[in-house]
Amino acid sequence: MREIRADDDVLTWAGALSVEHTPDWSRPWRLPHERIALFPGGELRGRAAMPAGVRLVLGTDARVLAGQAAVQGIEVPLDAVVDGAIVASAPVGPDGRFALDLPPGDKRLELWLPQFGTFRLVSVAVEDGARVWAAPEGGSVPDGGSVPDGGSRPGGEAPARPRLVAYGSSLTQCRQAASPARTWPALVARELGLDLTCLGFAGEAHLDPMVARVVRDLPADVVVACLGINVYGAGSYSERSLLPALLGFLSTVRDGHPGVPVLVVSPLTAPRREDRLGRAGLTLAQVREQVADAVALLAAHGDRDLHLLDGRNVLGPEHAYLLDDGLHPGPEGYEHMASVIGPAVRELLGR
Q1: Quick check: helix, strand or coil at residue 232?
Q2: CATH class, range 2-133
Q3: How far apart are CA 239 and CA 280, in angstroms?
Q4: Could you give the CA distance from residue 16 to residue 260 in angstroms, rounded to a whole number?
Q5: How far apart are CA 236 and CA 259, in angstroms?
Q6: How far apart are alpha carbons 2 and 94 in whole angstroms?
Q7: What are the residue ranges spanned by the domains of the chain?
Q8: Fewer CB in a 10 Å sphere around the end CB: N or C, the chain?
Q9: Over the stretch 132-191, which tens digit does the pLDDT of each residue have?
């Protein structure tokens, strides 16, 4: 097998906002690592270091992709995706080793990294004689040219795809999904041919102004913002402060994306929480109402590209059996979420 270091330019880290390279490993971040001090909170930073929605992209004719990662001693999943379809899945073992069998022929390979846990890539490897070339999103693949094994690259071009930015909580990071390419943001992106950036931070979707600025500054053709459940759970805002925080977050996002459709998803059903007062004196139903009020107010003041999807229409009381713990969906629940959110995103892009 021929080893390729994680910091080799032939590898593209799609879906990452920054990549931390050290002599021993590379780690993708979903917030700007070089400015991480501006994002207070150890939990938020920890979630940002989990590569939900991040893909390692390369062109290759290899039949096997193996590798070594530094992990936390827990088994985490990987998916190999070609042309939007999962062609292989494998765990990263507690020792950090993994291997996936690939279909024959030239292909643009996306290795979807684990949506949870610590993952620092040391290297990947292909069989001796296999060709490898850079295949970034929207980048051309020139004829000829040298590659690490002295071979040549096939011609062609990888066209840019519309860009989806998804923001939310654990219900957007989706630890309980079957694998990283089967979270709801990944399912929607693969179904619609979108380039995904996932900003799902389990327990940490608190309308942080600095995170709003990140969403504002990211390239996007559609934004999905799932708002409210962490606000309820942690009591981040009171009845007085929640609506202004929602208005500020969404207005900041809009500042960077004039004319771009923004879909706001209010909290999904959570039967034991609907009428129970949270830490700040709001029930989940009241939080959902304030999310709807924020969208209605901004729309009434001229934002024609802001849209609300009531979370109970995504996963309502009749779907409570899909919740593993009364709050988080299991694998089937995330597939169901994608089946509802996906058509809404398709409609907005079609406009």
Answers
A1: helix
A2: mainly beta
A3: 8
A4: 21
A5: 30
A6: 23
A7: 2-133, 163-350
A8: C
A9: 999 997 643 333 333 333 333 444 446 789 999 999 999 999 999 999 999 999 999 999
Residue owning tokens 């901004």: 298
Residue type, 287: V
SS3 per residue for 16-54: CCEEEECCCCEEEECCCHHHHHHCCCHHHHHHHCCCCCC
Token pair for residue 197?
């950036």
Amino acid at 187: L
Taking only Cα atoms into account, the Rg of the chain, rounded to an integer number of angstroms, comes to 20
Q: 163-350: what fold?
A: Rossmann fold (3.40.50)
The SS3 of residue 257 is: coil
| Model pLDDT for residues 37-66, shown as the tens digit of each residue | 999 999 999 999 999 999 999 999 999 999
Beta bridge partner(s), residue 338: none
The candidate with the shortest Cα–Cα distance to 112, out of 103, 122, 104, 100, is 100
